[in-house]
Design brief:
single chain, 93 residues, alpha+beta, Alpha-Beta Plaits, 4-stranded antiparallel β-sheet, 3 helices, 39% strand, elongated, DUF503 domain-containing protein
């Protein structure tokens, strides 16, 4: 069993409220949380409207499978979220 922790830090330039932040982040939890091998949550910057941090925990039978899933998440997030990715961290357990 292989486990990765993927943490993405976002900047939301021009975002004026927490309500707008929720709209711009566009349901990351709903999009990725339904996958059985992925758990996701907003892990930081919850009270700031101009920044956000999300953590994904990915589990798989091989490191290759887990790395592939991490890459897919990163790519999809960059295409679908109205925010700038400022930092990406991957940690394998």
């Amino acid at each position: 069993m292989h486990i990765a922790i993927l943490t993405l830090t976002f900047a939301l330039p021009g975002c004026g409220s927490l309500k707008e932040k929720r709209q711009r982040m566009g349901g990351l939890h709903a999009r990725f949380g339904n996958t059985p091998s992925v758990a996701v949550c907003e892990s930081g910057e919850r009270d700031r409207h101009d920044a956000s941090e999300w953590t994904f925990v990915i589990v798989g039978l091989s490191k290759r499978e887990v790395e592939s899933q991490c890459s897919q998440i990163e790519e999809k997030v960059e295409r679908t979220v109205d925010a700038r990715v400022m930092n990406v961290e991957r940690e394998f357990i």
